[in-house]
Write a structure and sequence with these properties.
Length: 371
């Protein structure tokens, strides 16, 4: 793996727990070390954060959250003081014009003749009144960076459509899991007198549409003896448990809420299940599910799913579409041989293409291009 010969600084609005392993691997590739600057989310966001970093130097930011919705902005105090203390040779910032401290940080680096890289999902497609003005603002903002790293090919296409030269765009496909170690988990081709188990892992929020998953589960053929395991916690848990109570009986718990699980306990859930389902938006657990040789059903979202979920290893469905979810579940469960083959392809994709090691390698390529 390539290394960066200098000291790197990385800004994030917040530090989700699932990013810790990636940042430590990135820091381990920087010969001069790496400093991370991040603050706390809004309470309504339900983002599980962490400060547990083994290699990365962490500096807490004071996030000032301003307004909400389409008018939301965030100002991170003390960013310039952090840069003075860190004195980085290169800086990676979230490529989001709603973060108000970004221009000052770019100016600080420019005065010292040092490169700045933007990292983001891509650029939104503006429509309606004022679309042209907003698009020009995005172009001006993005052109402040020496290079751009995006999560997906769709994000890269967004940047290219705004006139960013292709040689300045790098695709680091979104990953939370490392390359699988050892041999692929082998699941039985037949489960005589045993149920097939569907799995969801993530926050129990309304946007995850677990209510639709429970409804679709009710409509599955009874001869499959299906079970649904729901891992995670969140504000919708009580309502979902009440909905599931109508499906469960006194003798058979068809839907189980397993709560938060990590480490060995979560690995057990991955190993015992047959299909991972994400019926709503978000969900980096998709890549982790694939690292455990599971086929996946996911709702279409921001484009990060496009590089992960293909016809060979899963299904992408429209979000908020109960009929599509129901039909796709029936199709997926109709052929267990195909299901196992798709799981094997999931494992191959994570081993060879989408993992945090490859993600770090793209960051190194972007840093090399601007050094």
């Amino acid at each position: 793996m390539k290394t960066f010969p200098g000291r790197l600084a990385v800004q994030q609005r917040v530090l989700p727990h699932y990013r810790a392993l990636f940042f430590d691997l990135l820091a381990g590739s920087c010969e001069g070390g790496m400093s991370l600057f991040a603050g706390e989310p809004r309470l309504i966001e339900s983002i599980a954060t962490t400060k547990d970093l083994k290699i990365t130097q962490y500096t807490p930011a004071k996030n000032r959250h301003l307004l909400s919705g389409s008018l939301y902005f965030c100002y991170q105090q003390n960013m310039l003081a952090w840069l003075e203390d860190t004195n980085p040779d290169a800086l990676i910032l979230e490529a989001n014009p709603r973060y108000l401290a970004t221009p000052a940080a770019i100016k600080w680096m420019r005065k010292r003749g040092r490169p700045v890289i933007g990292w983001g999902l891509g650029a939104p497609q503006h429509t309606g009144m004022g679309a042209g003005f907003r698009q020009k603002n995005w172009m001006r903002f993005l052109n402040k960076f020496d290079a751009l790293i995006t999560y997906s090919q769709r994000g890269a296409a967004n940047y290219a459509a705004l006139g960013i030269p292709e040689e300045k765009i790098f695709v680091a496909r979104n990953a939370v899991a490392p390359k699988p170690k050892g041999e692929m988990l082998q699941r039985p081709l037949y489960k005589a007198q045993e149920p097939l188990i569907l799995l969801y892992v993530g926050r129990l929020q309304a946007r995850k549409r677990l209510d639709n998953l429970i409804r679709a589960f009710e409509n599955m053929p009874k001869e499959l003896m299906l079970r649904l395991w729901i891992v995670g916690d969140g504000p919708e848990r009580a309502a979902l448990e009440k909905q599931a109570a109508a499906v469960n009986s006194n003798t058979v718990e068809k839907i189980r809420f397993l709560g938060e699980r990590h480490g060995v306990e979560l690995n057990h859930a991955w190993a015992e299940t047959d299909l991972f389902v994400l019926p709503g938006t978000g969900g980096l657990a998709v890549q982790e599910a694939m690292s455990h040789a599971l086929p996946v059903i996911v709702a279409k979202g921001d484009g990060t799913q496009d590089d992960l979920v293909r016809a060979e290893n899963g299904w992408q469905i429209p979000p908020d579409d109960l009929d599509a979810l129901t039909m796709t579940l029936k199709d997926a469960l109709s052929d267990i041989h195909r299901l196992r083959a798709m799981g094997a392809e999931s494992w191959r994709i994570v081993r060879e293409e989408v993992n945090i090691e490859n993600m770090v390698d793209v960051f190194m390529q972007a840093l090399e291009s601007v050094s």
